[in-house]
Write a structure and sequence with these properties.
With about 280 residues, the chain is mainly alpha-helical. Helix content is about 50%, strand content about 10%.
Length: about 280
């Protein structure tokens, strides 16, 4: 998991370019043009309230005609919008250009509306509301970012500041010298708003279950790699793991599941000894 700077794109210009790109006989051109001030105000409101996004309410001035035009504009994915999506991807950290920020497992092959376009159509084509992610996370997330009591259920890595310590714990067991998955859980130093969002994020996206499916292959590959090295020692193995942790942590954050997996192996001294025999 990795924080990144909010994407900085000239959304006002994008909106105006989308209007200009529509044919003069297209009824959506007039509808969007008439709603321009409302939409620009909504963009400013979103930007101002990113750190308390739960407080953003749908702008009731947006009637069905404008709502449908906004959603249709997104779904038609015209040239201006397509170029904006490419710009969003290009401005992400390199690792997130190829990895979904929500799960850090799959490739980002779709865009999620952090505030869904059906309930918040004013943000249908707003860059800061568009999160590149994998289709599985997008499907699990669905249309609701708030639960029934108004609490956010998903991290937004552009403005939620993750703890600067390791909260994802992956224990690795020793089964006759073979590494095996142990307990995977979250452990926070305190209870605060962001940590509660992280907990709900993991639950709603089924991340622990998904990590459990990915980990056996990683453990098997590491084990087989070590068995090809007849001269491996505990000290050498510890150095290998520390280097892996350092590289992945720098690029993907200290709570990336691979970082936490290697850390779990490193902490099991009995396993390290048996793997080197």
């Amino acid at each position: 998991m990795l924080n990144y700077e909010p994407i900085n794109i000239n959304d006002k210009k994008i909106f105006e370019d989308i209007i200009k790109s529509k044919h003069k006989d297209n009824p959506e051109k007039k509808i969007l043009n008439n709603g321009r001030n409302i939409i620009i105000e909504a963009y400013e409101n979103y930007k101002d309230k990113e750190n308390e996004i739960e407080k953003i309410n749908h702008d009731m001035r947006i009637e069905s005609e404008l709502k449908n035009a906004l959603i249709k504009t997104y779904e038609s994915n015209g040239k201006v919008l397509s170029e904006m999506k490419n710009e969003i991807l290009e401005k992400l950290p390199l690792v997130l250009q190829g990895t979904c920020p929500y799960c850090m497992i799959s490739e980002p092959n779709t865009f999620d509306h952090y505030l869904d376009k059906s309930s918040y159509p004013e943000f249908s084509i707003y860059s800061r509301n568009l999160i590149p992610c994998c289709s599985r996370c997008n499907s699990y997330k669905g249309d609701k970012v708030l639960n029934d009591i108004g609490e956010r259920e998903f991290i937004n890595f552009g403005f939620d500041k993750l703890p600067n310590y390791c909260f994802l714990k992956i224990e690795v067991k020793n089964i006759n010298g073979h590494p095996s998955i142990g307990k995977i859980h979250l452990k926070f130093q305190d209870e605060n708003r962001v940590n509660k969002v992280i907990t709900r994020h993991f639950e709603k996206l089924h991340l622990i279950e998904r990590y459990k499916k990915k980990i056996p292959n990683e453990l098997s590959c590491l084990y087989n790699e070590l068995k090809l090295n007849d001269t491996i020692t505990v000290s050498k193995l510890e150095n290998i793991l520390k280097k892996k942790i350092s590289v992945f942590e720098e690029n993907q954050g200290r709570n990336n599941w691979l970082v936490c997996l290697y850390r779990g192996i490193l902490e099991n001294k009995e396993l390290l000894s048996d793997m080197c025999q």
